Amino acid sequence: MxxxxxxxxxxxxxxxxxxxxxxxDLLQVPHISTGDMFRENIKNQTDLxxxxxxxxxxxxxxxxxVTIAMVRDRLSRDDVKKGFLLDGFPRSVPQAEELEKILGExxxxxxxxxxxxVRDEDIRTRLAKRAEIEGRVDDADPAVIQNRLDVYKSQSxxxxxxxxxxxxxxxxxxxxxIDEVFDRIQKVL
Length: 189
Ligand code: AP5
Ligand code: MG
What we know:
By secondary structure, the chain is α/β, with parallel strands linked by helices.
């Protein structure tokens, strides 16, 4: 295991959150999910939550400056020195650039970008299923799911072009059982 500063990357429904739960248990590092942070703020109707809600409910990205400030604040805590699992951040090139700056200030760097791929049709099936079970508002409407997929392709996927030349991207096939995918991830870390 070379280092534990890890980004979990991939489209909505790729299994980032599912794999993160298993990985934080294995690696004993904090799980930093921007989606979870926004949902927590929305639940508590904080100012940040009220702002985020208008974007997340439509499947749009929350503005970079808001998201980056939230992550910057979280990364200022000491527990990230030993490692972290970033889940859902960065998802735009400006976020990736800003992350590198923040980590530079902390004397840290990204060791792995775990890029989980799943085809759009499998994503739709997974999210429709979760809509029934968990009732996440952004899973309920096929148009919002499509928006999330489009936003991923236009704004988030270009982050891979930013990270690939650094030699840190590990491509993972996200189809299979949760344990099969987890095994694949363990092998590349
Ligand atoms: P976020 O919460 O990050 O949502 P997302 O990226 O759309 O992805 P999901 O959480 O839906 O999927 P996942 O990859 O975690 O998969 P999961 O493990 O849950 O973001 C939500 C919103 O917040 C964004 O749309 C945006 O508005 C905002 N936001 C967040 N970060 C932002 C940022 N950096 N900048 C700006 N805005 C931001 O799995 C999905 C389902 O599939 C589950 O039901 C699971 O049980 C199932 N599943 C998992 N693995 C498997 C498997 N191997 N086989 C079958 N089913 C599986
Ligand atoms: Mg998630």
